[in-house]
UniProtKB/TrEMBL annotation:
InterPro entries, A to Z: Ada-like_dom_sf, Ada_DNA_repair_Zn-bd, Homeodomain-like_sf, HTH_AraC, Me-P-triester_DNA_alkyl-Trfase, Tscrpt_reg_AraC-type_HTH
Alphabetic keyword roster: Activator, DNA damage, DNA repair, DNA-binding, Metal-binding, Methyltransferase, Transcription, Transcription regulation, Transferase, Zinc
Designated name of the protein: AraC family transcriptional regulator of adaptative response / methylphosphotriester-DNA alkyltransferase methyltransferase
Methyltransferase keyword on record: yes
GO biological process: DNA alkylation repair; methylation
């Protein structure tokens, strides 16, 4: 997969912006070499640049990694590491998931996990866990008659009052209000589509 170069990526390349490392890599057709956005090598001609999402894609397009910025690194690129972590959370949000547990599972320190995850996703791992749980809870509230406490448990939160507080913080509604609102909305849609016929 290959993306056309956009203004944002181009700015990152010419500014050697480290914030974009792990978000994409760029290859230069004329040299056959690919780099991290932060590479201090001479800026290429824009029309010769190809953007890839990661080093693997550039390698499979037969570009070679730059010796200076070492875009393949010795270890997993951060964005892939973070993708593995989010996948793990998506699959295991029902379990107890703290930063320490996630760091352990992903073979990193909690500090490194926190920083890397936030840089790539814009939120912390724990915030991502919370969002995943609340999104699931929203589905349960609209698609099932489960009691609030059962829904809380089903999304990995055994403390119902805390679940209610977090739900309200993220959605702006209590779970009960949210369910009510959506059932009303559903009725309105049914009525509305009925009246059109
Ligand atoms: Zn480079």
């Amino acid at each position: 997969m290959e993306d056309r170069i956009n203004q944002e990526n181009w700015q990152a390349i010419i500014n050697n912006d480290t914030a974009y490392d792990g978000k994409f890599i760029y290859a230069v057709r004329t040299t056959g070499i690919f780099c991290r956005p932060s590479c201090k090598s001479k800026p290429p001609n824009k029309e010769n640049v190809r953007i890839f999402q990661n080093a693997e894609q550039a390698l499979s397009a037969e570009f070679r990694p730059c010796k200076r910025c070492k875009p393949t690194g010795g270890r997993l690129p951060d964005h892939e590491w973070v993708a593995q972590i989010t996948h793990y959370i998506d699959m295991n949000y029902r379990e107890s998931l703290t930063l320490d547990i996630l760091a352990d599972m992903c073979h990193g320190s909690p500090y490194h996990l926190q920083r890397t995850f936030k840089r790539i996703k814009g939120i912390t791992p724990v915030e991502y866990v919370q969002q995943t749980r609340i999104t699931k809870a929203m589905e349960y509230l609209t698609d099932s008659d489960k009691a609030i406490a059962d829904i809380a448990k089903a999304v990995g939160m055994t403390n119902t009052p805390y679940f209610v507080t977090l739900f309200k913080k993220i959605t702006g509604h209590t779970p009960t209000d949210y369910r009510q609102l959506n059932s009303n909305k559903h009725i309105m849609e049914v009525l509305h589509s009925g009246s059109k016929k």
